[in-house]
Amino acid sequence: MIRRDITGHGGTPLAVFEDGPEGAPEILFIHGWSQHHLSWERQAPLARDFRLILPDLRGHGASGRPEGDAHYNRSEVWADDIAAIVKACCRGKPVLVGWSMGSFVAGDYLARHGDGQIAGVCLIGAHLRIGQGMNPQVAAARAADTAASAQGMYSHDDAENLAATLAFVKACFHQPPEPDALARMVGFNMLVAPDVRRAARLRDADYHDAFAATRVPALVLWGARERLAPDPAGREVAETLQNARTLVYPDCGHSPFYEAPDRFNRDLAAFVRACQQPEDLS
């Protein structure tokens, strides 16, 4: 794996990690809120056949951490970061894979830049709207789940923050990670400052029009034991996209790519190949 440093919106430095053969079909993985490019470690086998592009989003991991809410609570910031990554790192048209907040970032990109430079989009644990416009049923379920709402992750008190972060990471799974993996995940979550977390998560965005206008192939998937984007969040997204397939992983939570990696990798590989030959999706 190699690291490439590029410049995102407003001059923010972005660390992008790449693996796989040059010239292979490209997959751009966009991690979730308070996460890291290492969230995708179980997708490493895909590098045999595909070029994997794995950024740390602004404020996360090894990327820049500009101060001030305006660097995180505006759609164009995230959209332009992804556009910069596509321009700098992709030879062809990549498939965007967005998990959780990463699906919002993919929506930000589609709203601002359209789908002309991508081959397809895969959304995992996605919502149609976030913030004030979130589906009331979904919002109520999240509000009732202390670990999923993760209010303590905005705290500057280390003990409160750590406890909330551990609970949140556990809530991302129905099938829990091994202890060492869980510790690593909590570690990279703690690289994200509380104020970054707050600004990035507590913003309002509506992706209905962007998804409705998207014509490239789409794959929408979620775990049946989902806690962070519970039903009907995924179904609303799938019904809005014009060219979408849906997959539901029965024994998984918010992280099916980690909980069922062999199945996910097969499903994603088939989707990416079909995006290169759209007739295979019919």
Overview of this structure, please?
This protein is of the alpha/beta class and 282 residues long. The protein has one domain (2-274): Rossmann fold. The protein is built from eleven helices and ten strands. Strands 1-2-4-3-5-6-9-10 form an eight-stranded mixed β-sheet, with helices on both faces. Helix 1 (75-89) packs across helix 2 (101-113) and helix 5 packs across helix 6 (179-189). The protein is globular and about 50 Å long. The mean pLDDT is 96.
List the helices and strands and how they pair.
Layout: E1 2-7, E2 13-19, E3 26-30, E4 51-55, H1 75-89, E5 95-99, H2 101-113, E6 120-124, E7 129-130, H3 136-143, H4 146-149, H5 158-171, H6 179-189, H7 194-201, E8 205-206, H8 208-212, E9 218-223, H9 233-240, E10 244-249, H10 256-259, H11 261-276
Parallel strand pairs: 3-4, 3-5, 5-6, 6-9, 9-10
Antiparallel strand pairs: 1-2, 2-4, 7-8
